[in-house]
């Protein structure tokens, strides 16, 4: 009681109203568990979580280590000879201009579409929301199949830019729309009150809040493009990935391909650094009283018709053309020629692999995302970034890395489904990571404090509070990965155990030989399977907004 | 419920010292308000008690269980504290009933028996049980948060500025409901607030904090009558401080010769007269017609009318300091009017060393 000087007065009690003695005994010191404050002090890492996150990032780093190790093994002179060629410059220019153009277009389309669906009084909001996510159900290589098989001239930079933009803009639309839903309308109202016009409010208040979602989406698209193979191969637009594939496939030139992959890895590193610098330190969890109200919607007035027309054209190009083309080729082939048995088996295989891989990927994304959001620091950033490498490496490099390592170290794993699932997890971690991370960022930490105070331990708190709050984000992440796996081509081509055929591999083997009509049913099935997951994605997002 | 004892607790974040040796005893079944301006460390203190963070030194005991001593810390989920966060922090994915039963065992959760009882306790309609948090008003959310905190039968209830986000109309009713519920189950409670009226009206004892230190711990009436320095005097209520000559049992100041309240300082002054100041509360100053014989002349500067009463700021004649008087809302003077002032009751003496800032006048 050192620091409680109290003005003495005749009737005053010594301490406390009842004059109770402040003396306290410490009888149960021995029974107390020794703790050094792990977990609760906000700077420490819970050991189990850390161990899980470290294992996940180590697995995600396998392909990178393979590429680096390979490059090192061939020596610096040979490596330099393979890298510094005019061909590399050409591929670099192609890859960079495609990624830059696509990110820019997707950001504009994705943010505008998200604002229209979440904040404006657009007629048919629910339908648009579904339609704007639907292009995700059409793999980029099916999309380009649709365009090329109808318009063989849709090749080169223009064609490639158009087709990848139409395929990838939902990757910006989805997180931005989710962020807009989570945004406290009071922020916008405050800006209006401070004299900002709606447009200035959007630029100065809303857009900065959307930055994590927008950057996350853009990063995802860039990484996606660095790894895109099927679509660009079909459009004959050479980038690093197609060149690497050609090297492997046609000449089995391992060193050359690996060095190109090395350049790709450098590009990926640059992207990661850029995002890290741009993201800043701001917190994006909502601050303020109670639960967020839904936002008022802006009336479009005279703008309604042009806006509807614009969205209509977008959807026609992104969905209409590829679906129309598929329909055309389906009717061209005679239905009696459909190999029904084969179609059923490949479908079941694809769905099973997709479900298992998606759940695995989301589960292992959790510890890394949790550390990144709740214990931000150098270590958690490094762990999170390391999971991004998978997406920047072409599926074929991931596959070959796993094949090589499995043959050398764990032959029992070679030609197993487990190895294929590992490849999927490495490839698609970044996709689910973005969703899991932003979901966690929007779940207020005070709720976890409250749960602890109510007697819930760390795992119970996670199960009963955090998990429920981030469920929409997890659902979205899982659905994204499911779609990605069902439509994954290159890694599956190499890693699928003998006799395991998926829709994508069957489609590719037919379309490779320009058997458009024969490949169409497999493409259609891929779209059909992806469609419900895509629809669920939009519904989950809605539910998340309501809860 | 049980008592809460905090001994010598310190905490710093990096190089910033937030708490510097806090000692506090909260008797069983009583409500202690921790009162202080924002940034004084009061919320940190609450988080240390709850176990969300650990002190750098000191000890915390709840009843006879030590929950923190250096190197040993009971995690929050085993401290049996009820925690009501600033804005309720209800789980948005759970209904009111599920929020309330969150801290109960699985079987009790399923039965949900205690929900109506707890809703009654905090004065909420039982039909709200199926609602979701976003369908409740701020005041209702706070009451549900309290019901949730009370459901597992905590040893101590911690309330972190629970009323600050409510508007005035809701605030009074919510305060009353919350305190009534706490009293009904004789809860040991710590309420953190920056609102002196809230602290004085709700608590059994008030702990005043300033810059990471606990500077006074007293029952509300005592705190108001005997603030330990002029800073606390101004923080727990409006104060008029006038320079004065302190002597045997009385003080001579601009408002005349006034009787001194019994205190150590008064005793020392009677032994040896000295310069200092006196604390007069505005409600002690009475206004009289200027024509009256008694009292000190003053001119009305302005009047703030609150309905039930009014604050009148006056300049003592001829050019004396400005003082504030609190008068009932009828027969108010108008600015410029001349009046006479008298002081009822005794005043508190401050020797020069217990004055913070200017000893002249605050109002």
Automatic annotation (TrEMBL), chain A:
What's its membrane topology? Multi-pass membrane protein
Task: Spell out the Pfam families in the cross-references.
Answer: BPD_transp_1
Indicate yes or no for the key word NAD: no
Q: Name one GO cellular component term.
A: plasma membrane
Q: Name a biological process GO annotation.
A: transmembrane transport
This protein's source sits in the domain of life called: Bacteria
Q: Which UniProt keywords apply?
A: Cell inner membrane, Cell membrane, Membrane, Transmembrane, Transmembrane helix, Transport
Residues crossing the lipid bilayer are: 48-71, 91-117, 129-150, 156-180, 255-274, 307-330, 350-373, 385-407, 413-430, 469-494, 514-537
Q: Where in the cell is it found?
A: Cell inner membrane; Cell membrane
Tell whether Transmembrane is among the UniProt keywords.
yes
Domain ABC transmembrane type-1, first and last residues per copy: 92-277, 347-537
Q: Where is this region: Disordered?
A: 1-24
What the record says about family reads:
Belongs to the binding-protein-dependent transport system permease family.
Protein name per Swiss-Prot or TrEMBL: Iron ABC transporter permease
| Organism this protein belongs to | Sphaerimonospora thailandensis
Task: Show the taxonomic lineage.
Answer: Bacteria, Bacillati, Actinomycetota, Actinomycetes, Streptosporangiales
UniProtKB/TrEMBL annotation, chain B:
Stated EC number for the protein is 7.6.2.9
Matching CDD domains, A to Z?
Answer: ABC_Carb_Solutes_like (cd03259)
List keywords of the entry alphabetically. Answer: ATP-binding, Cell inner membrane, Cell membrane, Ion transport, Iron, Iron transport, Membrane, Nucleotide-binding, Translocase, Transport
Task: Please list the GO terms describing molecular function.
Answer: ABC-type ferric iron transporter activity; ABC-type quaternary ammonium compound transporting activity; ATP binding; ATP hydrolysis activity
Residue span, ABC transporter domain:
4-236
Q: Name one GO cellular component term.
A: ATP-binding cassette (ABC) transporter complex
- Enzyme class, first EC level, given as a word: translocase
Among Gene3D superfamilies, the record links this protein to: 2.40.50.450, P-loop containing nucleotide triphosphate hydrolases
Q: Does the keyword Thylakoid apply?
A: no
Query: Which domain of life, per UniProt?
Result: Bacteria
An example of a Pfam family matching this protein is TOBE_2
Please state what the protein is called. ABC-type quaternary amine transporter
